[in-house]
Automatic annotation (TrEMBL):
PROSITE patterns: HTH_LACI_1 (PS00356), HTH_LACI_2 (PS50932). SMART domains: HTH_LACI. SUPFAM superfamilies: lambda repressor-like DNA-binding domains (SSF47413), Periplasmic binding protein-like I (SSF53822). Pfam families: LacI (PF00356), Peripla_BP_1 (PF00532). Keywords: DNA-binding, Transcription, Transcription regulation. This is LacI family transcriptional regulator.
Amino acid sequence: MNLRAPVTLLDVAQRAGVSVATASRVLNGGDRVPRPELQERVRAAAAELGYTPNAQAQALAKSSTNVVGILVHDIEDPYFAAIANGVMRAADERGLLVMMASTFRDADREIAYLSSLRAQRARAAVMIGSRRTDAEVLARTAVEIETFLTSGAGLALVSQSGMPAHTIEPDNRQGAADLARSLVGQGLRRFGILSGPENLATARDRRAGFAEGLAESGLEPVAVLPGDFTRDGGHSAAEELLARKLELDCLFAVNDVMAVGAMSALRSRGVDVPGQLGVAGFDDIATLRDVWPGLTTVRLPLEQMGRRALELAVEGGEPKTETFSAEVVLRDSTGKR
């Protein structure tokens, strides 16, 4: 009796040195054909291993719809909304229909939505969020991403590095370090950091980058306080720092909505910004136009990031990561000079 396990598409991909998605496009078909040399490697590996293509997978790969899915952590957050807007504009220019869902930072919900898009034979999907740091969650998400790509669909992720798919990565660490240098250059020395959730890589990278920028001048944060990645999270964290009666020059919030919440808390306590305490954020969301004093922040090309994510998802091919640089924007909330 032959008890050898059947050869899988993953076996073929590993033998050929390509992703599962590329192996699937060669053997099962689809509208994004890999380079000839990759096709030769995949077919040679399949022949060596005795792999037989799955007829159902072939049928699915050749019958995708013109639907693109957008999975976003929280569409109410202006950061995510701006990126999603870039995805939708790029999709509209290509005659693609968009389905969008908020995952509310729930990993199980995110995986379920991606599975649903696969069942509906979506042409592509864009996942917009922040990479989590839980190993078990990352592993389950990676499995569903591989399955989604194997179906013949395209995928790109924003701010979720380390996954087997195209990735758009903002340079959070460098941007935060540049901000720290700029604020030190303004004469500020004693900083409190509103650091966001501990389990989100975006928050960790920005906090670490800011600390690195301070360290270049021999400084370190006076206090680091975690909290929700929301306006209310920033408001609560700022109130707690005020209650500690620390000697501070400036608060750095790892995103703009937290910074806006912090400024509200300072106003309610009669703290003058920037006269008594400066405030800085990160992202340069559009709603900052209505914030007074103008918020010092780090600008990311959010809509451009979304556009590029859609382009990569539709183009397919071997997974690659593209990094978008950040730019410090000094405004009145830190006593701009």
